[in-house]
């Protein structure tokens, strides 16, 4: 598994350009969350490397509401309302990032497909910024559909919860 520093560097590169144009501190937050997730025994990760450099990464874990005691999860449940129950025992895709030099080459598709297969779950979900981005188009192509609004995304707008399955 890659280090949290490598994940931070990759996400910073992947999210710096339009349409996301996220500041570097967002990558630091995602790296911290990944570092905390490393303690999970049910963590699933997928990676892609080129000449040893991390060029693609994704991770996630099974989602059970009883385990989610943080403010973000409470806000997610509140925003989703009755739809939140559909995420119980699903698989939460926490992060998918592709180096900008490898965008539009099918790497994101392959990583997400590998992550979904490795999870063994029938339902997968994630939260994205509600902007037209390569990632959002990838999720749509793979059959993810909007479930509802979630907590604030890095752009300050409500996140969009997408579900597959």
Describe the structure.
This protein has helices at residues 4-15, 24-37, 71-80, 107-119, 134-141; strands at 44-50, 53-63, 90-98, 124-128, 145-152, 158-164. With 165 residues, it is an alpha+beta fold. It has one domain: Gcn5-related N-acetyltransferase (GNAT) (Aminopeptidase, 3-Layer(aba) Sandwich). It has a six-stranded mixed sheet with strand order 1-2-3-4-6-5, with helices on both faces. Strand 5 (145-152) and strand 6 form a beta hairpin. Helix 1 packs antiparallel against helix 2. The model has no long low-confidence stretch (mean pLDDT 95).
SSE sequence, one letter per element: HHEEHEHEHEE
Distance between the termini: 27 Å
CATH architecture: 3-Layer(aba) Sandwich
Percent range for β-strand residues: 25-35%
Measured as a percent range, the helix fraction is 25-40%
Rounded to the nearest angstrom, the radius of gyration is 15 Å
Which topology does CATH recognise?
Aminopeptidase
CATH superfamily annotation: Gcn5-related N-acetyltransferase (GNAT)
Q: Average pLDDT across residues?
A: 95
- The helix count comes to 5
Poorly predicted runs of 5 or more residues: none
Spatial sequence of strands, sheet with the most strands: 1-2-3-4-6-5
Instruction: Give me the secondary-structure category.
Output: alpha+beta
Describe the sheet with the most strands.
6 strands, mixed
Number of domains: 1
Secondary structure: number of strands: 6
| Structural shape | globular
- CATH class, anyone? Alpha Beta
